[in-house]
Design a protein that fits this description.
With 269 residues, this protein is α/β, with parallel strands linked by helices. Helices cover 42% and strands 13% of the residues.
Length: 269
């Protein structure tokens, strides 16, 4: 099981949209996927047509020692489950900070999921802040995927979260955390700025940046209001095509590299 944090402390970058639709596309590809809504605003929860549920958020596990398995709920999509969010998570930041072990707590809570390997992927939708919930998520994750909108203000946010990743590693909370990928979102092919930002980010981060670019489309903005992922709401549209391609690229990155031709070389007699 791999735990993937979808995070950017800057809001409005397509973070929750990416968490919902990457999760839905992975599930559509047959991967057992858990979407963990860590944002007290609960947009990932409502974006899948679900209501907030009292005592249904991770607060019950983080603060009240509830078994995490009791919080998992099914969705209308095959292979996709969710732990819903609730506004009570906002208070969780204060209580975790006072406990003194907040960087380790979420990792401890999620450990039973690793032990039983019920899921292939846990996708965490993190809040748009640098608070306790986000840092706890980074300390618990195997890898980080950063959605970044195609504009220059996004570069500032990207540098900050890269710095946080370095701090999480260096303090020993999660030395193995990797910046697995950067997803360029809200791309407008008609604007020169979008092309320039994508080229600049790729020039600096190289292969960390996904080849798949998520376009700015009206349908992507509409889908959450209907409680649907984009592959349900507009399955033939550009947004659905992009997120399917992103999921496929996400999975390809986790496949073992093919053996080199040199390994098959045979010495001449």
């Amino acid at each position: 099981m791999r735990i993937v944090a979808i995070a950017n402390q800057k809001g409005g970058v397509g973070k929750t949209t990416s968490a919902i639709n990457l999760s839905a596309c992975l599930a559509d590809r047959g991967k057992r996927t858990l979407l963990l809504d860590l944002d007290p605003q609960a947009n990932a929860t409502s974006g899948l047509g679900l209501m907030q549920e009292d005592r249904g958020s991770l607060y019950a596990a983080l603060v009240e020692n509830e078994d995490v398995h009791n919080l998992i709920r099914s969705t209308h999509l095959s292979n996709l489950s969710i732990i819903r969010s609730h506004q009570e998570l906002a208070g969780c930041e204060i209580e975790l900070a006072q406990a003194g072990n907040h960087l380790a707590r979420l990792r401890e809570v999620l450990q039973p999921l690793r032990t039983l390997s019920v899921f292939d992927y846990v996708i965490m939708d993190c809040p748009p802040s640098l608070g306790v919930l986000m840092t706890s998520a980074l300390a618990a994750a195997d890898e980080l995927v950063v959605p970044m909108q195609c504009e220059y203000f996004g570069l500032e946010g990207l540098s900050k979260i890269v710095h946080i990743v370095q701090q999480i590693r260096e303090c020993g909370a999660n030395p193995d955390l990797t910046l697995e990928g950067i997803v360029m979102t809200m791309f407008d092919s008609r604007a020169n700025l979008g092309h320039q930002v994508v080229n600049d980010v790729r020039g600096y981060f190289g292969e960390v940046v996904y080849e798949t670019v998520i376009p700015r489309t009206v349908r992507l903005g509409e889908a959450p209001s209907f409680g649907k992922s984009i592959i349900e709401y507009d399955p033939a549209g550009k947004g659905a095509q992009a997120y399917r391609a992103l999921a496929d690229e996400f999975l390809r990155r986790r496949q073992p590299a093919p053996p080199s031709l040199q390994s098959f070389a045979v010495s001449s007699p």
